[in-house]
């Protein structure tokens, strides 16, 4: 046996004893190391970046922000970043102390006890499967804009042509992410890292190209509201809060960098850095793309801004040839985003199943000896995601409601971590990992801001706006109140199952249990 093993990009090698130290940390939580540690610094950073996926989110939601808030909606981007940064900083402390798969579930369990952990994990897992479907639908927004050939069903003018074609394209993408994840984390990491590298290069190139075609200054663009909010109770603030969803829908998923903790080298040190780097890089690059798009578009009042979105801006400003090259890069970004979302969902399902907190836990938590990855969760999540996609064929409005609700559930899952963490701080029981990332005396105010932000944004996301939850067709009360109804059903039914059935079986499965049992859990 050699003294060192190869690392990921940016690592020449790493002493094997360090891997043993990471495995010992995992044993402290009660788990036997089963997943192979092959991921380096760039791999974990790329996982966080690809989940956030600036090109996917901005190209998918730019039209929404402009339609409901005008160009001035841009200010929601730094607002959401500031709030999510508070959450990310809390996660950095947790990633340094608990570098474990299924981070949200395990963190909530350690901080709030098994019941809070299960509910947080359940909400996050359900939301992740819906999010995978939503990301897969983004193919429909981009591919037919590149070439009509990608409109396989109808010509795009029929009532359900776009929705049905979106299901077809999305299903192909989900099949791809399922296969890649089933073949192991190393293949996933290579594809993901290559895709993120292309995405970052394309995003920077897009910023430069847009900056070279500026037609106005920020003073005239970032104050333009289109007169939206006139006559509303809150005026433009109400319109801005609606438009801010376009930013809130993008800037999450940075915790993926820590969810791969059992497959990363030195995760207690690298995961916090990856979380912050992924969020900050996404904020800077995404903010500049949105800004320069608004400054470069020839007509700031063009109706196509609210229908064609960034795709329209790119093709109009840069021309068809360069524009299509950029759109192909967006397709790559969508692909690796779906791959990262699927990967994060697998680790979460594996972590919950390993604690026997899901039906058929032993099968879901089984690590394939050949590919050294949980294959069954990859298939289950893929099948569920395709089934959710089918909802979009004849009921696209219902799907949009469910997609919006999935984002709320992720914000609530984050709250299931930050709120118990705040309680532990107030009780004087929270201790960051010694010698690792720590917020020090800033921990309490940052944690408090993270909880306040998460609560406020969850309420904003769930507010029964007809523009969001019943945008077309006849008005239905159950669609407008869909967030409260759907989340109530998912959380209530799920927790009822856990309380009456699964909690009596919970406990680390024998085949996954470490010889040394965990000590010092915060809920003890």
Portion of residues within helices: 55-70%
What is the CA–CA distance across the termini? Answer: 40 Å
The H/E string reads EEHHHHHHHHHHHHHHHHHHHHH
Please provide the count of β strands: 2
Structural class of the helix and strand makeup? mainly alpha
Give me the number of helical elements: 21
Protein name: APC family permease
Pfam families: AA_permease_2
InterPro entries: AA/rel_permease1
Main location: membrane
Helices, strands, pairings?
Layout: E1 4-5, E2 14-15, H1 16-28, H2 41-52, H3 54-69, H4 76-97, H5 103-112, H6 114-146, H7 161-182, H8 185-211, H9 218-221, H10 236-243, H11 245-248, H12 256-259, H13 267-296, H14 309-354, H15 361-364, H16 375-390, H17 396-426, H18 443-462, H19 466-469, H20 477-480, H21 482-500
Antiparallel strand pairs: 1-2
Helix pairs in contact: 2-8, 2-13, 2-14, 3-10, 3-13, 3-14, 4-13, 4-18, 5-6, 5-14, 5-17, 6-7, 6-14, 6-16, 6-17, 6-21, 7-14, 7-16, 8-13, 8-14, 13-14, 14-16, 17-18, 17-21
